[in-house]
Amino acid sequence: MPGKSNKTASEKGAVPFCSGDDPADGARTKLRQSALLDPPKPGKPAEPARDELQRWDRQIVWHAFTQMSEYEPLIIESAQGCTLTDIDGREYLDATSSVWCNIHGHRHPKLDAALREQLDKVAHVTLLGASNPTTIKLAKRLADLAPEGLEHVFFSDDGATAVEVALKMALQYWRQRSDPRPNKTTYLALANAYHGDTLGSVSVGGVERFHSMFQPLLFEVLRAPSPDMYRLPPGVTQETALDYYLCAVERILADEHERIAAVVVEPLVQAAAGMVIHPNGYLRGLRELARRYDVLLIADEVAVGFGRTGTMFACQQEQVAPDLLCLAKGLTGGYMPVAATLATHEIWRAFLGTHAESKTFFHGHTYGGNPLGAAVALATLDVFEEEQTLEKLPAKIDRLAEHLRRIARHPHVGDVRQRGLIAAVELVRDKATQEPYPWEEKRGMQVCDWARAHGVLMRPLGNVLVVMPPLSISLEQLDRISVTLEEGIINVV
Ligand code: PMP
């Protein structure tokens, strides 16, 4: 348990707003005066010891998605390729790409150099009414690379903000186009969707455990079933699932399309839902339905973009061009927080007008399109070409599939699923009934703890173990990850 700090507010540097109210004020003034007379010696403060770092990490850093009363510090000091090294010199394979973002490995010389070169020019330039060559080049490169029709790029800084931008653009588009449709103010999203943690993204999200707490703050969203091929609804088979799930979407669209601005989807794989893999043809079907019922299609490729599913963008696998495309994570190879929302010319046009008309997109983030991030994103795209990253994937995808086939035989592995270099192993209490382990048992986390102790760093999604390594992973490293995962399951479950 983290110990409580015994420091008083003044020791922590807090100053009361209203000086004179506090009897300790006189003493503080004296302290300040003596500090001025005797200023601290210049020079670097001493480096904190290992134990101190760990204590601060437990007591001061508030870690994302982490129960701080149970947190065991893991402090990574350096990395090389797909290997992370902690402050004790222990090495770990980065089996989930530092939460699904690293692409070409850590400390890639080309990416590092791009960042350094940009530092010699300028670290940050605002995109609010100004620009810089690096960010412009990235916009052009993305527009050229993306599915057809996505000609305009709005930069932000994270996956959640890329989604917020898409949601707001969709709504504003319908209000401002030449034939306005102001009633289109809601969205259709999937059950168990995850689009980030800002309130708009949480509204379209549907992961009970993460999102239900914030219900009073969220806007209304219409919900279609998640096209889950493992847990099928009663009476639905693998063969009828695609039709079933698309019909469910169509029913909602038929009834509600007049008030729906956009359908929001994570193409091919619903990542945080537990790497739920959609049936082939689902995305294509959504695209057609969205067009038929005159709603926009927002593709959130924050997790699946940049080669994860085997192609640069997941949408390409079903020849789909969305109206809005959200990119982040792998965009900078996992180096820097830069995100992008790509839009069609049709959408862009609806925002053009005079200053007085106020059709402007009144949205922006200070660091949107940051040139350091843009430089490293351009280098990431160069490396895709120079190292033929996508061309090398099939052998890795096959190797992972081989391992999964073996792991699937374990009596408590209910399902293994894979799309490209994204793989999931779902643990169940009962294979026949698909009964999950109770959340409180932390089965997934226990396997990951075991893997961590054996040099493989993974993060589960409840009972689902995820393998989603950098695309630069070697076959030998994939073997090590898979075998460690399997041994973890055998030893812990
Ligand atoms: N969309 C999807 C599909 C995601 O998986 C995530 C993050 N895991 C996000 C959006 C949010 O991205 P960020 O954490 O960068 O805000």
Secondary structure elements and pairings:
Layout (H helix, E strand, L loop, with lengths): L24 H13 L12 H10 L16 E5 L2 E4 L4 E4 L2 H4 L8 H11 L13 H13 L4 E7 L2 H18 L9 E5 L8 H6 L3 H4 L10 E3 L16 H16 L3 E6 L3 E2 L5 E2 L4 H11 L3 E5 L23 E4 L11 E6 H5 L21 H16 L6 H15 L5 E7 L2 E9 L4 E2 L6 H11 L2 E2 L6 E4 L7 H18 L1
Parallel strand pairs: 3-16, 5-6, 5-7, 7-10, 10-11
Antiparallel strand pairs: 1-2, 2-3, 4-12, 8-9, 11-12, 13-14, 14-15, 14-17
The structure holds 4'-deoxy-4'-aminopyridoxal-5'-phosphate.
Structure characterization notes:
This protein has 493 residues and is of the alpha/beta class. The protein has two domains: 53-103 and 390-492, Aspartate Aminotransferase, domain 1 (Alpha-Beta Complex), CATH 3.90.1150.10; 110-386, Type I PLP-dependent aspartate aminotransferase-like (Major domain) (Aspartate Aminotransferase, domain 2), CATH 3.40.640. The chain contains 15 helices and 17 strands. It has a seven-stranded mixed beta sheet, sandwiched between helices. A hairpin with a 2-residue loop joins strand 1 (76-80) and strand 2. Helix 9 runs parallel beside helix 10 and helix 14 crosses helix 15. The chain is globular, with a radius of gyration of 25 Å. It starts with 24 loop residues before the first helix and ends with a helix. The model is unreliable at 1-36 (pLDDT under 50). Residues 158-160, 163, 194-196, 266, 271-272, 300, 302-303, 328-329 line the site of 4'-deoxy-4'-aminopyridoxal-5'-phosphate (PMP). The site of 4'-deoxy-4'-aminopyridoxal-5'-phosphate has 15 residues, from helix 6.
